[in-house]
């Protein structure tokens, strides 16, 4: 059987099994975890069998679906899609591990929750693997349905509002993209006499299309992707979705789902509308840099932990957009690896914040303070996730951010310089958050009500010692347990490992980026013999 | 001594942008030089990951790793040998390879990096040993869970040493950047070590953020180098520096200087360094006096082929140094907190180093020499201050000290020698290194010689004043602590520190006395450094050569005398006098550096962020929702949200979409 097909179908099979078992939580949970681990193994096998520098699309396969319109269920992976598939496979067991005991709204079964997560995984793998534009569109929209139920069914108090908002934004963006896809189909039909949705064929046909045609095609795809990987000002669905979604779902939304947008830029916008991409690059670059600065300032001003994460991601998507549209291989490899590294870093940040919320029961930042003395391990984990978020050299995110900036500086120095300000702002919003939650004397209603009791706040000796001695024994606040350490440890390892030795990821991504660059028809301005 | 190229054919190369001969590392000692970094890094990993199990022996492991690194550094030093050796490069692995950008993870072993490695691991070892005693019964760190805090402390300290070694040993600007931000992280963790104290947490964040502002400069310089030369490796950049336009070189010089200002606490990014004294005192000695804060000087010395190409760039560096050395002195005169005085003294002394490296080939080696002697005496002074605090219940207010020489004689003696070295007492180490910088500053042509030299010599006088004031208030005069208590109401019982603390202080005091003579006799250090920094060029001073030392010593003597008149002869009031001149008031307010930061950076940013947050909800989200709700098709949706038919709506939407697709498809087919 085709490996890629197995990657798509295995989680789906898992979902069905888990859904059947959903009345029996004790069985459903390990089965779901087992399927997600099997998927991780499959993804590792796919990675091992992928040949960087080989065919443009590998592990591909195709089944005819609607031959009248040249639509077939065809799938294949390039390096960028491969790493994204690997990231989902990595995150899913961790998400399940986190959600093992997470409190769900009443009358909701955990089995159902896990089954929906597995469905979402299958659809996301498929959306990255699709090589037929129509199939991509269909998956892009279908993907919203399990997510809609995950947010709307299992989320916070305003989950219905957030779910509908999420759904409408993405769905409308998708419809606009559909118009573009149909436009591309018609153009192919008119010029070659044979309409098709096959990505590779369309790419060849559209390369020679007049700029005006390309611009319309570009804008249609752009609408969908700019909403998905939210670029300011189309971002407001994300803070609501992140705030209302259960933590595990928030990991999938900011870690994986949003990347479909930036992936779309690389796979569809650029190769299908090469001239328009270059023509309209200043627009996207502007939105990207605005996103970096706007998202960073917003993150700094947030009072809610989950909305904080959303704005951090918006800032990071700005960097990714900058990297993609600067048109150098360094910046684009940076952007593509940013997609991976953001999933790891922000995924970990969301999980750690979920663990904080699980202890205090509140997502308001002001309800926490001085936790480090009582939960040093949790504090350390927040710091590691935060340092990766602010792209400290030595962490994985640094590699991507550095590549994006150094690459874009060569062609777009003004944009790169403005985005570099985001480096300072990232330090501000990450360390301020850490300071407010972890440092200083133990404080905050979420902690004192659940732990030391109201007296703790007013007891001067307790406050001065920061929760030491007898104070510590009064606290019921637990540090991380074995399950939580198990969820976070793989991410910590990856953050350090990919920060010091990123070659495994860069080597897979680089040939695909080079291919994309040549499809757009641009070359690097800087050679090792010096540039301009 | 001539610089020779790799073929050894005796061709003399010019100092300006000399293409440096770089050879591959030879022999087992050189090709395993990465162990110098790996050992403390492994120590940090073990100490931070092993948890409480390591509480009992963590501090011993922490010391052992740094001492082992020092031993290796000595072996490496002797294997590299004399000053005529070329730089050795050691390729480890390809770090960031993307087409034309090939960032190598490798080491560069040359005189400049070796000098730093010895300083970092040598002084680092002493301070690690001292910390065993200092952190043993640390008031804030007591947890009742074994000495978890001390283990964590040694873990961070090991991490710092490893990062600092990467900074100086790396063979490209990007590996330097890795170490650069790595030491920033270690500094952040250690300033905020007592993180339950809000002031410590705030100081840590402030330090990191202000450093990041500087780091932007360093990052942009790297981007610019890559855009113009396609490389970030030192060897290639320096070999091909002449391909750069003069404007580019100036831009790079100024951007690197911005980075140096952040890391080294130079004006205008100086405000974080005094706040960094919130960290435990060994941290102040190692990171915020002897090593990390001098990284800016290292950076400029390392990039000397670029700075030598731009006179304007050099001048800006020198001016920043001169301004900073005066600012540091002036503020240092106004504080009563012993650590803050020493902190501003550090700011000021690094100003001297900056001034020196800003003089170009005339000063690179002098800056490094002052950096080394300062490493000894300032580390010693901080350890001495730590010893005083150790015996005085962590009190830092000098107005509560007095007459302590009787109670802590070793601390007094070692501190006193460091003090004499710092104010440039003849034949102690500071005398040689500072005197040389002042002489070189006066040798600048025209008005520059007068201005830079004048600032340097004035600084010497002010240094003598504030250090004498500190000395007198702490060790001499009335024992003011006898009728005072700590802010927690405890009485003082001053006592000498244990041998594990006084031992390193004694070693550093010996260094403070002898280092200057040893390094300058026969121009030993200058010759050793010449392959990396070029030959020292001496110019003609605007003042006669013999006048300068006399002037310096005279002004220093005046400084000592005035200090004696102010705090030695008269009784020291319990609280700082309030009726003071505007100059003193300004100095007490850090010459309004913090106020300026708040006004131009902090408040506008916070205001903008809060404003944007309101705008995002009301403006952006409101507009989008508004547009949506006014669209006829969507108004129905909004009504349905409230009635709870969302799910059916979502499905019908999807069905509608599919139908729409079908419709469009049929239209689209030819």
From TrEMBL, chain A:
Subcellular location: Endomembrane system; Membrane
Principal place of residence: membrane
Entry annotated with the keyword Transmembrane helix: yes
Listed GO CC annotations: endomembrane system; membrane
Membrane-crossing segments per the record: 31-50, 81-100, 112-130, 136-154, 166-188, 213-234, 246-268, 280-301, 308-327, 339-358, 370-390, 402-431, 485-503
Entry keywords, A to Z: Membrane, Transmembrane, Transmembrane helix
Topology in the lipid bilayer: Multi-pass membrane protein
Gene Ontology BP term (one): electron transport coupled proton transport
Native species: Actinopolyspora xinjiangensis
Family: Belongs to the complex I subunit 4 family.
Domain NADH:quinone oxidoreductase/Mrp antiporter transmembrane, chain residue ranges per copy: 130-424
MF-aspect GO terms: NADH dehydrogenase (ubiquinone) activity; NADH dehydrogenase activity; ubiquinone binding
Record's protein name: NADH-quinone oxidoreductase subunit M
Repeat listed as a keyword: no
Regions annotated as coiled coil: none
Entries under Pfam families matching the protein: Proton_antipo_M (PF00361)
Highest taxon of the lineage: Bacteria
Automatic annotation (TrEMBL), chain B:
Entry GO terms, CC: endomembrane system; membrane
Localization of this protein: Endomembrane system; Membrane
GO biological process, one term: electron transport coupled proton transport
InterPro entries: NADHpl_OxRdtase_5_subgr, ND/Mrp_TM, NU5C-like, Proton_antipo_N
Pfam annotation, one family: Proton_antipo_N
Protein origin, superkingdom: Bacteria
Membrane association type: Multi-pass membrane protein
Gene3D superfamilies registered for this protein in UniProt: 1.20.5.2700
Principal cellular location given in the protein's record: membrane
Signal peptide: none
Keywords: Membrane, Transmembrane, Transmembrane helix
Domain NADH-Ubiquinone oxidoreductase (complex I) chain 5 N-terminal, first and last residues per copy: 95-140
GO molecular function, one term: NADH dehydrogenase activity
Domain NADH:quinone oxidoreductase/Mrp antiporter transmembrane: 171-455
Name of protein: NADH-quinone oxidoreductase subunit L
Organism: Actinopolyspora xinjiangensis
């Amino acid at each position: 059987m085709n490996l890629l097909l197995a990657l798509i179908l295995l989680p789906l099979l898992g979902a069905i099994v888990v859904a059947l078992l959903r009345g029996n939580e004790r069985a459903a949970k390990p089965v779901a975890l087992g399927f997600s681990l099997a998927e991780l193994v499959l993804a590792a096998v796919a990675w091992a069998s992928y040949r960087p520098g080989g065919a443009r699309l590998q592990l591909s396969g195709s089944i005819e679906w609607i031959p009248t319109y040249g639509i077939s269920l065809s799938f294949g992976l390039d390096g960028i899609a491969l790493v994204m598939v690997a990231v989902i496979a990595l995150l899913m067991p961790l998400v399940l591990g986190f959600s093992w005991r997470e409190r769900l709204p009443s009358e909701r079964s955990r089995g159902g929750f896990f089954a929906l997560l597995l469905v979402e995984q299958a659809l996301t793998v498929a959306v990255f693997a699709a090589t037929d534009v129509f199939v991509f569109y269909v998956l892009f929209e279908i993907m919203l349905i399990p997510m809609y139920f995950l947010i709307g069914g299992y989320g916070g108090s305003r989950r219905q509002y957030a779910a509908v908002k999420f759904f409408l934004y993405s769905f409308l963006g998708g419809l606009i993209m559909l118009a573009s896809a149909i436009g591309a189909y018609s153009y192919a039909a008119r010029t070659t006499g044979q309409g098709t949705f096959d990505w590779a064929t369309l790419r060849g046909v559209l390369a020679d299309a007049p700029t005006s045609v390309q611009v319309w095609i570009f804008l249609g795809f752009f609408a969908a992707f700019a909403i998905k990987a939210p670029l300011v000002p189309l971002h407001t669905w994300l803070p609501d979705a992140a705030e209302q979604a259960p933590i595990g779902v928030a990991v999938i939304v900011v870690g994986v789902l949003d990347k479909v947008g930036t992936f779309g830029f690389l796979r569809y916008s650029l190769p299908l509308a090469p001239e328009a991409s270059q023509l309209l690059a200043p627009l996207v670059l502007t939105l990207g840099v605005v996103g970096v600065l706007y998202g960073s300032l917003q993150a700094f001003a947030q009072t809610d932990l989950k909305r904080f994460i959303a704005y951090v991601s918006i800032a990071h998507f700005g960097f990714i957009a900058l990297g993609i549209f600067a048109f150098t291989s360094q910046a684009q490899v940076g952007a593509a690896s940013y997609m991976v590294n953001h999933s790891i870093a922000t995924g970990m940040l969301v999980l750690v914040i979920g663990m904080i919320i699980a202890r205090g029961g509140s997502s308001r930042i002001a309800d926490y303070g001085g936790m480090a003395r009582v939960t040093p391990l949790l504090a350390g984990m927040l710091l590691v996730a935060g340092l990766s978020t602010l792209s400290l050299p030595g962490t994985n995110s640094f590699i991507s951010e550095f590549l994006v900036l150094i690459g874009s500086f060569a062609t777009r120095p003004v944009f790169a310089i403005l985005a570099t300000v985001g480096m300072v702002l990232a330090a501000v919003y990450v360390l301020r958050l850490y300071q407010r939650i972890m440092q200083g004397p133990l404080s905050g209603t979420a902690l004192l009500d659940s732990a030391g009791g109201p007296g703790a706040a007013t007891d001067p000796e307790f406050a001065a010692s920061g929760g030491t001695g007898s104070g510590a024994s009064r606290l019921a606040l637990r540090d991380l347990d074995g399950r939580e350490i198990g969820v976070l440890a793989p991410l910590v390892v990856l953050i350090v490992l990919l920060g010091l030795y990123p070659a495994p990821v860069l080597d897979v991504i680089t040939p695909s980026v080079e291919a994309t660059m040549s499809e757009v028809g641009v070359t690097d301005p800087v050679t090792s013999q010096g540039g301009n | 001594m001539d610089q020779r190229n790799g073929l050894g054919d005796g061709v003399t190369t010019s100092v300006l942008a000399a293409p440096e001969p770089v050879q591959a590392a030879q022999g087992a000692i050189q090709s395993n030089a990465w162990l110098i970094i790996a050992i403390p890094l492994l120590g940090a990993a073990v100490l931070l990951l092993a948890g409480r199990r390591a509480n009992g022996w963590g501090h011993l492991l922490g010391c052992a790793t740094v001492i082992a690194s020092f031993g290796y550094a000595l072996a490496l030093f002797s294997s590299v040998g004399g000053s005529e050796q070329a730089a050795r490069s050691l390729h480890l692995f390809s770090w960031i390879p993307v087409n034309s950008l090939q960032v190598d993870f490798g080491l560069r072993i040359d005189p400049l990096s070796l000098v730093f490695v010895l300083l970092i691991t040598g002084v680092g070892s002493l301070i690690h040993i001292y910390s065993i005693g200092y952190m043993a019964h640390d008031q804030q760190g007591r947890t009742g869970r074994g000495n978890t805090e001390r283990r964590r402390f040694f873990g961070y300290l090991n991490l710092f040493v490893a990062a600092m070694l990467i900074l100086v040993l790396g063979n490209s600007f990007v590996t330097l950047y890795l170490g650069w931000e790595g030491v920033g992280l270690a500094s952040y963790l250690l300033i905020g070590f007592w993180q339950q104290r809000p002031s410590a947490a705030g100081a840590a964040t402030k330090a990191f953020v202000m450093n990041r502002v500087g780091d932007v400069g360093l990052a942009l310089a790297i981007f610019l180098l890559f855009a113009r030369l396609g490389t970030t490796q030192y060897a290639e950049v320096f070999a091909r520096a002449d391909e750069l336009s003069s404007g580019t070189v100036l831009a790079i010089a100024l951007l690197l200087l911005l980075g140096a200002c952040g890391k080294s606490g130079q004006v205008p990014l100086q405000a974080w360094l005094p706040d960094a004294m919130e960290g435990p005192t060994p941290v102040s000695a190692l990171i915020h006096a002897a090593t990390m804060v001098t990284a800016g000087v290292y950076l400029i010395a390392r990039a000397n082929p670029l700075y030598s190409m731009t006179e304007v760039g050099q001048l800006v560096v020198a001016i920043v140094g001169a301004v900073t050395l005066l600012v540091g002195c002036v503020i240092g005169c106004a504080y009563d907190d012993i650590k803050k005085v020493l902190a501003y003294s550090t700011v000021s002394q690094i100003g001297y180093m900056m001034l020196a490296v800003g003089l170009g080939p005339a000063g690179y080696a002098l800056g490094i020499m002052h950096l080394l002697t300062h490493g000894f005496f300032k580390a010693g002074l901080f350890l001495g201050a730590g010893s005083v605090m150790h015996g005085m219940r962590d009190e830092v207010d000098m107005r509560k000290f007095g007459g302590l020489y009787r109670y802590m004689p070793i601390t007094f003696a070692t501190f006193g020698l460091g003090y004499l070295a710092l104010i440039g007492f003849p034949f102690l180490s500071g005398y040689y290194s500072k005197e040389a910088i002042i002489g070189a500053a006066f040798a600048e042509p025209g008005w520059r010689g007068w201005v830079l030299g004048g600032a340097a010599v004035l600084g010497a006088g002010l240094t003598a004043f504030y250090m004498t004031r500190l000395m007198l208030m702490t060790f001499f005069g009335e024992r003011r602590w006898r009728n005072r208590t700590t802010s927690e109401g405890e009485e003082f019982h001053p006592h000498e520190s244990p041998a594990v603390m006084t031992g390193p202080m004694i070693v550093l005091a010996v260094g403070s006395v002898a280092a200057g003579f040893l390094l300058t006799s026969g121009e030993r250090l200058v010759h050793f450094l010449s392959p990396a920094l070029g030959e020292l060029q001496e110019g003609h001073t605007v003042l006669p050569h013999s006048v300068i030392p006399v002037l310096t010593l005279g002004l220093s003597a005046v400084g000592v005398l005035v200090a004696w008149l102010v705090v030695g002869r008269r009784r020291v009031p319990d609280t700082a006098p309030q009726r003071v001149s505007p100059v003193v008031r300004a100095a007490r307010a850090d010459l309004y550096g913090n106020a300026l930061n708040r006004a131009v950076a902090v408040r506008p940013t916070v205001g903008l962020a809060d404003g944007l947050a309101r705008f995002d909800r009301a403006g952006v989200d409101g507009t989008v929702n508004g547009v949506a709700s006014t669209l006829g098709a969507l108004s129905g949706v909004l009504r349905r949200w409230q009635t709870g038919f969302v799910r059916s709506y979502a499905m019908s939407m999807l069905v509608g979409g599919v139908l729409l697709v079908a419709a469009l498809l049929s239209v689209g087919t030819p």
